[in-house]
Amino acid sequence: MDFEQLTTQYLAQEDFSQTVYRCEDGFLRIGAGRNIETLGLTEKEVFYLAKNDLANASKTLINQVRGWTLISPSVQIIWLRLLIQMGEQTLFGYSQFVDLLCAQQFEAAALELQSVDWSIKLPNRSMPLINSLYKIAEKSS
């Protein structure tokens, strides 16, 4: 049996879920029964998912941020990380922060980002991004 045929048969017999669920055996699973607690993800799978996340986030930002292609890569990566970590609705819901970032007012954007709920709840995620904004502000002045 070839691998494609085996995969097709396997997928036909497994439940499919695009979100994480807890199976009756108590383990967290995703996709076609992938036990993410015991198997986790390989480096190749993580890279694949990250590439997809970055591609999707880039498409969103091209449509949402005027002059996206003119923004420096160091600022683009901050936008991308924020969008992937927060989600579109949350990021663009912080309109004052978004306006400051679009205006390239990086120090003011960093201060504003520190004050939003997401940053307060998730300091380990937010502080590296806030610090990056401060570093960009220093280089810009």
Please explain how this structure is put together:
A hairpin with a 5-residue loop joins β1 (17-22) and β2 (28-31). The termini are far apart. The model has no long low-confidence stretch (mean pLDDT 94). This protein folds into 2 domains: 3-35, no CATH class; 43-140, Lysozyme (Orthogonal Bundle), CATH 1.10.530.40. α2 (43-64) crosses α3 (73-86) and α3 packs antiparallel against α8 (123-140). The protein has a 3-stranded antiparallel β-sheet with strand order 1-2-3, with no helix packed on it. The longest helix is centred in the middle third of the chain and has 22 residues, at 43-64. The chain has helices spanning 3-13, 43-64, 73-86, 88-93, 95-102, 106-115, 117-121, 123-140, and strands spanning 17-22, 28-31, 34-35. The radius of gyration is 20 Å and the shape is elongated. With 141 residues, it is mainly alpha-helical.
| Shape descriptor | elongated
List the secondary-structure elements in sequence, H or E: HEEEHHHHHHH
Main CATH class of the largest domain: Mainly Alpha
What's the CATH topology label of the largest domain?
Lysozyme
The CATH architecture classification of the largest domain is Orthogonal Bundle
Report, as a whole number of angstroms, the end-to-end distance.
Answer: 64 Å
Low-confidence stretches: none
In helices, the fraction of residues equals 55-70%
The biggest beta sheet is recorded as:
3 strands, antiparallel
Which structural category do the helix and sheet elements fall into?
mainly alpha
**Structural domains: how many:** 2
* Count of separate DSSP helical elements: 8
Strand order of the largest sheet: 1-2-3
How many DSSP E strands?
3
